[in-house]
Write a structure and sequence with these properties.
Blueprint: E1 10-14, E2 19-23, E3 26-31, E4 35-39, E5 45-49, E6 58-67, E7 71-80, E8 83-91, E9 105-108, E10 115-118
Antiparallel strand pairs: 1-4, 2-3, 2-10, 4-5, 5-9, 6-7, 7-8, 8-9
Length: 119
């Protein structure tokens, strides 16, 4: 486990915007309680509370990954109608202490959904 610091800063703050995710023409997530993570020089990532996600369109996959700063991630495929986006969503179910706020939240890959908008 690595801790964020000057060489790899990570901040998690409430997003000022409402975040909406659309897949195959359907709104699959919409929240004004989203968290915005800024990690090092990467693009910001929006973590949406599970309560604001249509969980009926998500199916957990066997795919897993590991980040030394955040922990182990689980992945989900999103399916609406006949369209699916494999491993389009991820979650840190037991994130490390430095990013504990993202527990109970999921993030979407913007390039695997129709749109992910903040505003």
């Amino acid at each position: 486990m690595k801790k964020p610091g000057p060489d790899h800063p990570i901040t998690v703050e409430p997003a000022a915007e409402t975040v909406t995710v659309v897949f195959n023409g359907k709104t699959v997530a919409r929240s004004s309680q989203t968290l915005k993570m800024q990690e090092a020089r990467y693009a910001p990532v929006y973590y949406i509370p599970l309560a604001d996600v249509d969980r009926a369109v998500m199916a957990k996959t066997a795919h897993r990954s590991y980040c030394p700063y955040k922990g182990h991630a689980s992945y989900y495929t999103v399916t609406v109608g006949i369209e699916s986006a494999e491993n389009a969503v991820w979650a840190y179910e037991e994130p490390y202490e430095a990013v504990a706020a993202i527990a109970g939240h999921v993030a979407f890959y913007p390039d695997r959904v129709d749109s992910l908008t903040a505003g």
